Amino acid sequence: MMLASSLDSIGILDSLIVALLGYCVVFFGLILLMIVITIMGKVFIAKDKKAAEKAAAAKTVVSAVPVAAAEPAAVAPGSAGKLKLYDVEPKTAAMLMAIVADKMGKPLNELRFISIKEVK
Q1: CA 25 to CA 35: how far, in whole Å?
Q2: Is-contact 97 111, C-beta < 8 A?
Q3: What residues contact residue 39 under an 8 Å CB cut-off, 6+ apart?
């Protein structure tokens, strides 16, 4: 079944105009899409930059607070000394130590962890 259309008997010039208008509509849509994507990218970059500035400001505030005693005078009872953390949050280190103690079947205070480093 053929669809009835008013474009059945148009000439070459008319078909070129219709094709040109179609190309213009498509490229206009692509340009609008490019503009939207560029704007969204700039918004997310600004958001990341703002979060980084806020984190840097918080870090400077924390480092500006004077520390009374950086080194404790005595080790807490039941602990096995100091633990150095390299690129690991204290919460993650605590979970890792608990998992190791559980897998080894020993109490945590009998194990000595010297350092924990994230492998990248």
Answers
A1: 15
A2: yes
A3: none
* Mean pLDDT (the chain, rounded): 81
Q: Residue 49 carries which side chain, given as an amino acid letter? A: K
Beta carbons of 15 and 23 less than 8 angstroms apart: no
Structure tokens at 95: 């979970």
26 has pLDDT over 90: yes
Q: Which amino acid type is present at position 65?
A: V
Give this prediction's pTM.
0.41
pLDDT at residue number 64: 53
Q: What pLDDT does residue 1 have?
A: 43
Structural tokens at position 39? 């704007």
Whole-angstrom distance, CA of residue 47 vs CA of residue 4: 53
Query: Distance (Å, rounded) from C-alpha 117 to C-alpha 119?
Result: 6
Identify the helix (H) or strand (E) that includes residue 117: strand 115-117
Rounded CA separation 86/92 (Å): 11
Q: Give 81-101 pLDDT, tens digit per residue.
A: 677 888 888 888 888 888 988
- Read off φ and ψ for residue 80, nearest 5 degrees: -115, 30
